[in-house]
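My current task is to audit a protein record that another person submitted. I have pasted the whole thing underneath without changing anything:
***
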Amino acid sequence: MDLGLLLPGVGFLGLFLVVPLAQVFLRSVGLAVIGQAGRFTWDYYRQFWAEAQYRDGFFFSLWLGVASTVLSLGIALVFSALMQVRFPGRLLISVLYKIPLVVPSLVAAFLILSLIAPGGILARLVFHWGWSWPQLVYDRWGWGIILVQVWHNVPFMMVIISAVMAGIPQDVIDAARNLGAPPWEVFRRVTVPLSMSGISAAALLVFIQVFGAFAVPSLLESAYPLALPVIMQTEMMDRANWALASALGSVLTIASGIVLVLYYRLVPGRGAVVR
């Protein structure tokens, strides 16, 4: 009877998660190909590693994920700690910082583009002062993409981290202060360690989301390198190379899975789940 209660959930995961992932992997190794005979091969994975555009696309996506996560986490930590302090206007700020959560990523990209593009609002503003505006979009390092992802993900991180920080007993904070610890030391040695479960979970979710993002990179990235999800879309829709696109998708999935396993291994209290 108890096992029967699990069937709806297990069936949903199997039908909409396991089956599609298995089909993508089989297609990436030359099997499950529609309209032609299948033949097992690792050629598409070899092509991914041998050709610079695919390899550079992977590392570019990895860079976007790491940089966006680190910057978002640093900002979210500071503001989450400040939101634990009572001050006038705190309620209003707690509402305003959540606004980016309801703005779609593509809309956020258009907003940032109109602001920091070479012909954007800020560029035209500083031009009147005789200053030159730096190249923040369509650049080799994807700073425009990172800026959009930070703007969009800081509130998401703050929701998670603030909730964890709010659960820290006030007695622990007061004890640290009574022992003479300055506010920075209290934050670094007490607040952050006790909030590590929320911090690590927020960082993991943001990294995986940015690592596999398509909409923002497709709008703001330069001609080279392209993020791997954008290359996937080109191979699949423009060149009808479904097998190679499946291999690229499998690489993204495997890399995200490795990050997830490392998270459970390295974060205290999580490793027991996979042991």
